[in-house]
Description:
UDP-n-acetylglucosamine1-carboxyvinyl-transferase, Chain, 2 domains, 4-stranded mixed β-sheet, 25% strand, binds uridine-diphosphate-N-acetylglucosamine, binds phosphoenolpyruvate
Amino acid sequence: MGKFIVNGGNKLSGEVSVFGAKNSVLPILASTVISGNKSTILNIPDLRDVEIMEKILTSLGCSVERIDKIIWVDSKPINQIKIPEELVREMRSSIILMGAMLARCGEVIVSYPGGCEIGPRPIDLHLKALKELGAEIEESHGFLHCKTNGLKGCDIQLDYPSVGATENTILAAVTAEGTTIIRNAAREPEIIDLQYYLNKAGAKVSGAGTSVVTIEGVKNLHDVTHNIIPDRIVAGTYMAAAAITEGEVIIKNVIIDHLQAIIAKLKEAGALIYYDNNSIKVVGPKKINSIEMLQTLPYPGFPTDMQAQMMALLSIASGTSIITETIFENRFKHAEELARMGAKIKTFGKVAVIKGVKELTGAKTTAKDLRGGAALVLAGLVAKGTTEVENIYHIERGYENLHLSLQDIGADIKKID
Ligand SMILES: CC(=O)N[C@H]1[C@@H](OP(=O)(O)OP(=O)(O)OC[C@H]2O[C@@H](n3ccc(=O)[nH]c3=O)[C@H](O)[C@@H]2O)O[C@H](CO)[C@@H](O)[C@@H]1O
Ligand SMILES: C=C(OP(=O)(O)O)C(=O)O
C-alpha cells in the first residue's frame, strides 16, 4: 500500500517544477482514439491515473508507447469497444472514453466509473448530452451500452457546468454531422487544453474557456503533437506547502492565470506572492491569517481540488476560518484525519469551521482520497514530531513523486513501500 513518513518542522526553500496536468492529460489521452491516427503527447506526468489510461487504450487495441515524459498513441488498430471494468472502476476519467469511442466507433460498452470517494458522482449530464447528440444508451447490470448510427450536432444546455460532461460532449461532437453548441459549459483551463489538442488534429472547436463551446463536426482528424499544460493543483499544493512551513519556494513551469483564485486566498492567509511569466514565489507568513470565507466553485472560482490543502493550512491559522464545499457532497474526509494531528475542525454538511490551533502534532493518518492525502502531507510538514500518511496510492493518482519534490526543497519526508 505504501506510506509517507514526514518529520515536521523544516522550512521549505528552493525551486520545484510542475509537470503536466492530470485533468488535462487524461481527457486528451482518451481523445486520441477519435482520429485513428498518431498522437504524440508531451509533458506527461508520471501518475497512476496515466498508467490506467494507457492500459485502457492498449486494451482497446491502440498501440501505446511511453518514454519518460512522452506518450505516442496510434489509435488506428482499435479492435475492441468494451472497456475493461476493472480499469474503469479505478478512475473517474475513464468515462470520457464514452464520447471519444462514440465518435470513433459509434459504439462503446463501459461500466460506471470509480475514482476518489468524495460524494456521489452521477453521470446523468454526460448521458443526457450524448443522447441529445443521437446516442442510444442502454443501462444494465452496471454497464452502459452506447450506440449510434451517426451523431448529429445540436444545441445542448448543461444543467451544471460539469467538467467531465463538457469534455465528453465536445469529444462526441467532434466528428458529428453539423454544429453542436454547448451552453453553460465548464470553463476550466483543461477544457481549453483539450480544444487546443483537438484543433491541432483538425477539429473545429471554439469557445473553450467560456461558457459557450461550439463544435463544427469534421470528417477526420490527423496526426498531432501536443504539449500538456502544467498542473495548477500540483502548483497550488506546493504554494500551500511553502505557506504552511513559513518557507520560501519558487514554483516553476506554471500558468499564473490558472492560479489566480489560489493566489488570492493564500494572500488573504498572509503569504507573500511574487510572479513573472511562468514561475511563482511564495513566502510563508510567520503566522497564518484565518480566512472568513473560502468557497469552492467552478473555475474561475476557488478549485475544490485545493480545498483540503487549504484546510490543512487554516488549521494553524490565528483565528477561525470557514470553508464551504459547493462542488462535492462529501469532500471533508480529511478533517477527521487532521483532527488526529490536533486540528480543531467541525463539519456541518457542506460547511467546515476550522478553529486555528497553535501547533499540530505528528500522528498516524490515512489518505482517504487524493487531495485529502496531500493535505495530510502538508500538515505533516509543519507538525511537531512524526506523521505517517498511509494509503498513498490515492496521492500517487495525482502527484508525481511528491516526496522527492518536497525533499528537494528541504522537507524531511520519505516513502515506505
Ligand atoms: C479528471 C478530472 O478532470 N476531474 C476533475 C473534474 O471532475 P468531474 O468532471 O467528475 O467533475 P464535474 O465538474 O463533472 O462535477 C461537478 C459536480 O457536478 C456533479 N455532476 C457531474 C456530472 C453529472 O453528470 N452529474 C452531476 O451531478 C458532480 O457530482 C459534482 O457534484 O472536475 C472536478 C470539479 O472541478 C474536479 O474536482 C476533478 O478533479
Ligand atoms: C477529484 C479528483 O480527481 P478525479 O476526478 O480524477 O477523481 C482530483 O483530481 O482531485
